[in-house]
Structures are given as structure tokens and as C-alpha cells.
Amino acid sequence: MKRFITFILLVPLCAFPQSRRIDSLRTVLANTGTDTAKCQIYYLLAIELLTMAPAEAEKVMAVSKRIAVKEGYNPGMAYVFSFNAIQANYKGDYAGSKNNAEKALAISLKYKLGPIEAIAKNTLGIYYWQTGNYAQAVEMHLAALKVRERLNDSVGISKSLGNLGQVYLDNEKYKEAEYYALQGLALCKKLKENYVTINCLHILANINAAQKKYQRALAFDREALPLCLADNNKRGLSQIYSNMANCYEAMNDLEKARQYQMKVLESDKYFESKKWISDTYLNIGRLFWREAKYEQATDWLNRSLELSVATDSKKGQRDAWKMLENVLEKRGKYKEALVAYQNYQAINEDIINEGNDKEIALMQTNYETQKKEQKITLLNRENTIQKLSIAKQKTTLGIVAGSAVALLGFAGLLYNRNQNKQKIILQDHKLEQRAELTRAVIEAEEKERTRIASDLHDGVGQLFSAVKMNLNGLIERVDMPRDEDRFLAEKTLALVEESCKEVRHISHQMMPNMLLKSGIASDVKSFIEKIDSEKLKVKVEANGFKDKLESNVETVLYRVIQEAVNNVIKHSRATLLNIKLDREATGISVAITDNGVGFDPAVAEASGGIGLKNITARVDYLKGTVDYRSAPGAGTSIKVWVPV
């Protein structure tokens, strides 16, 4: 579990260590005469104290609020709501953080309080990041950045850059995350702003850890450690210890990982942050799971789950349920593991499957009923023994004992059978969920292809056409006595015309004009006609496709063939390509063969080639099979079969 510092100290302060800033603010406060001015200074002081002494920060902010209420100073209430939003975020109360940030934003816009506007937008960005709405998070952080640039707030700009890096990191866009984090780091180092420097260093550490560059990640954290100690930044220290623990865990130094996680837990409890305590419980539970200490792991994970529910942290609940499923399965508790997996899926995909819950409850009832019936039978046997005469007791006892052993053996068989049945149900349920998820991904991809293709055709394509028309008219009206100028103009016009063709080609590839209208055979032939036959000769043969297929089958098959052909064009250096489609009573077979340079399938699979993964995922969705036959220098053959 990655841990991040949230960038919410958003007020442009002097570039001094935090303790000196606090002393400076107290000096200013002692020399300030008006209550409204004191209201703002108390707010700034409370914000500074929040990372090192949260209880004291609350007391200071309470004074600021009393002044605002007493004086009827509306801008002062913006400070109150801003502080409450930041404090709620630290405690994992994201709903409270959003509510207070929106109130602070409304007041700041009314009274033109630029710094508070930036803080409110940034805090909302953090809320959307924490709740998984990355697009909205980026939008809010960019809005905050725009305000800070208008205010020429260099410190705030560096924090916004760090925030953007943080969102992109959590969305696994490492290149963009590093771009923003490095910009923020360069700026805050120039300003000698330790707090933001710590945050940017920590984000860079997480970026490297996510890419398995653990020593480099630890180097960034070690650079941040003395800055945290110098500023008594306990919150930053907690984050750094957390990442170091995760790095050591990844490097299989589990003892050192646990030591750092315990330091993190101590800090989390100091700040009374239920959200962070929940994350740390999860991390500790994972360490016990890796050591095969499953009972301890279950205990820590249940603690994590309880707090993540209390803080409404969907990501925390999702991760806890997923880890619990793994642990319970290892313990042989397949019934509980199935419940955990279903809860994980419900949160991850916002789907609640009540039918499966009822089925599990029914299995539980049946199993308990069987156990009770066996117990009653044994008691009846014992009652019979008591009523027998002394002369016949030994014989009867032997018979009953044998029956009891048989019953116990039968109970054991029933238990094992039930356990195996539940294990099979769990695996089947996982497969069904994966198929459903694949279907959703493919459908979402097709919708996005349609949207992009439409935008290209109607937007970029129309603009290029207009440019071409205007440029053509300009060339006709302007006299160009020099041959070089005319040649350059005509060359530019030709490039624009070529760009128009390329846009049309890309948009047609993404959403063919005839797709789902003419049928798979015609669609493939139409696609092949657009390939340059001088470079690659393609032969298409289709048999048995008189009737159209179900739309999803046609779309998926078309994309499989398109992906395979594009791979041939990009990588194979082939001159001949044969595509054969056969429709039979039980299914459809597709054979794609080229005479190119070939490849080693094992190497391609190990390197994680996206093209092959896309083909395999789509064929799996149709419950079909795909077989790759290739070798360096021997061409490639792809055989696909899907049932209909």
C-alpha cells in the first residue's frame, strides 16, 4: 500500500524552517492590534502547527474562530472552514473535508480571497484523489495552480506541481508523475522550502518503488529524513518510514519492514488518523501473510477493514477485502474467502451480488443442519446404551462405537466434500467475475474508440480540411516569383493533404464505416483493401458467413484480426499474409499466417507484449482459444477458435 503526504499547507510563507516560521508568526501576532488581522495570523499559526502538534493547532484555531464570530468577520469563517477541511483530510474524514472545502471556496470567491481559494480547490483535488476520481482531482489541482500563478505564489505553485505528480502516481502514470514531481522539487529547493521538498522527494521515492527501483527509492527517502527531523515534521516522517518499510518488504527483508511499519503505526496513533492507522494495519497484515502467519494476518486485516469502513475509505476496504480473501483461502476457510472476494468485487466494481450471498447462506445452513442431525443420532445411540441390560452392554457398545466411527468418518467426508465444493465455487466465481470485467473493459474500449474516431473525423479532420482549403486559396491569390517559395508552399499543401488522409485512415481503423453492418467477412476485406498492396500482399478467404454473428462476437473478432494484422505490418517485415475465416456449426476458426521474420513466443510473453495480451484477452472473453506458432526466421501463424 503506497502512502502519500497530502499537500495542504497552501499558504505562501517565507522560506524558513517550520519552527522559525512559527516563532515569526507568534511575534507578528504579539504586535498586531486589530482583531481581524489576528484572526488570519491565528489561522496561519494553526496550519503550521497541524503537522507537528495537532491538539495545539485546534486550540489556536478555536481562538481564530471566536474572533471571526464575535466580530462578524465573514472572511474569517473562510479560514475556519479551510482549517477544518485540512484537518478532516488528515483524519481521513473525506466527506467532512469536501464539505468544509466547498464552504471555504464559496466565501473566498465572494470576498476575493485568492490564497484561500487555492487552498480550497487543492483540498477538493485531494478529496477526489482519495475517492478515486482522478480526472476531477487533476482538474481541481490545475485550477489551484492557475490561482497561484495569478498570485505569483511560488511556494504554492511548487505544492500544486507536487499534487499533480501525486495523482498521476496513484493512477500509475509514472512518466507524468515524475515530470510534475521533479518540477516541484526544483522549485521548492530553490525556495529552500523544506516541507514541500520533503513531499516531492517522497513522491519520487514512491514513483521509483512502484517501478521496483527500490534502492533509488530509499535514496530519495533518506534525503528527506534529515529535513523532517530538522523541522520536527512528524507527519512527513511517518510517510517516509512507510515507504521505506514497503521497499524493504519488496526486497524480502521482512524484519526490517515490520520495524518501520511499527514506527509508522506509532506516528499514526499520535495524529489519531483512522485512515492512516487502517493503512498501516493492512501493511502489517500483509507482512504476516507473507510469513504464512495467517491467524495474525487475519487479525490485523480485520482491524484495517473496521477503520476503513469507519472512514468510508473505499480503497482501504477494497485492499483489505482482497488481502483477506488470500489469507482465508490459505487457511482453508473457503466460505469466508468467497464472501471476502464478493465484497472486494462489490466495492471494486460497485456491484452487489445478493444472489451469491444467499447461496452462501444456504450452503452454511445445509452444512450446519447435517452436523446437528449427526449429533442427534449420536445422542440417541447413547440413550439406547443406557437402557440396555448389563449383559448386552458390551456388545451394543461395540456396535454403537462402530456406528459412531462410521458416522464421524461420514461427517469428515461430508466436510471435505463441502470444503472442496466451496473451493470450486470460489474459483468459478472468480472466473465469472474476470469474464465480466473483461467484457466491461472491451465494451468501454469500443465506446472510447467510437468517441475518438468521431472526434478525429468531425473535429481534427474538419480543421485540416479547412486549412487545406484556405491554404489552397492563399497560394492561388499570392504571387510567388521565386520557385523556392512556390515549391515550399506546394510541399506544405501536400503535407496538409496527406495529414487529412492519415486522420481519415486512423478514424476508419478505430471505427470502420461498415462495422456491424456488413458482417465480419466484409468488414475484414474492407480493412485489408486499405493496406498498401505493394508492400504487403494479403489474401482473405471466408467460408460459411451467410448470416451475421452476434454483435459482440463480430466486434471482438474484428479487433483480434485487426490487432494481428497491425502486428504483422509493424514487426514482421512480411511480404505475404493469408487470412482464413471458417464458420462451422460449433464455432469460428481464424487462421492468420505470414512469411515474416517470426519471433520467439516465450520471449514475447515474458516481455509483456501488449498486442499479444490484447488478442488473448479478447479471445478469452469469447471463451475461445488462441495458438501462436512462430520461430525466428520462420514466419508466424496465429490460430483462433471461438464457440458460437
UniProtKB/TrEMBL annotation:
Q: Where are the TPR repeats?
A: 278-311
Source organism, top-level taxon? Bacteria
The UniProt record lists the Histidine kinase domain at 557-644
Q: Does the keyword ATP-binding apply?
A: yes
Catalyses:
ATP + protein L-histidine = ADP + protein N-phospho-L-histidine
Keywords on this record? 4Fe-4S, ATP-binding, Cytoplasm, Iron, Iron-sulfur, Kinase, Metal-binding, Nucleotide-binding, Phosphoprotein, TPR repeat, Transferase, Two-component regulatory system
**Entries under PROSITE patterns matching the protein:** HIS_KIN (PS50109), TPR (PS50005)
Assigned EC number: 2.7.13.3
| Cellular localization per UniProt | Cytoplasm
Needed co-factor(s) = [4Fe-4S] cluster
Question: What does the protein in this record do?
Answer: Member of the two-component regulatory system NreB/NreC involved in the control of dissimilatory nitrate/nitrite reduction in response to oxygen. NreB functions as a direct oxygen sensor histidine kinase which is autophosphorylated, in the absence of oxygen, probably at the conserved histidine residue, and transfers its phosphate group probably to a conserved aspartate residue of NreC. NreB/NreC activates the expression of the nitrate (narGHJI) and nitrite (nir) reductase operons, as well as the putative nitrate transporter gene narT.
The protein in question is named Oxygen sensor histidine kinase NreB
Question: What does UniProt list as this organism's lineage?
Answer: Bacteria, Pseudomonadati, Bacteroidota, Sphingobacteriia, Sphingobacteriales
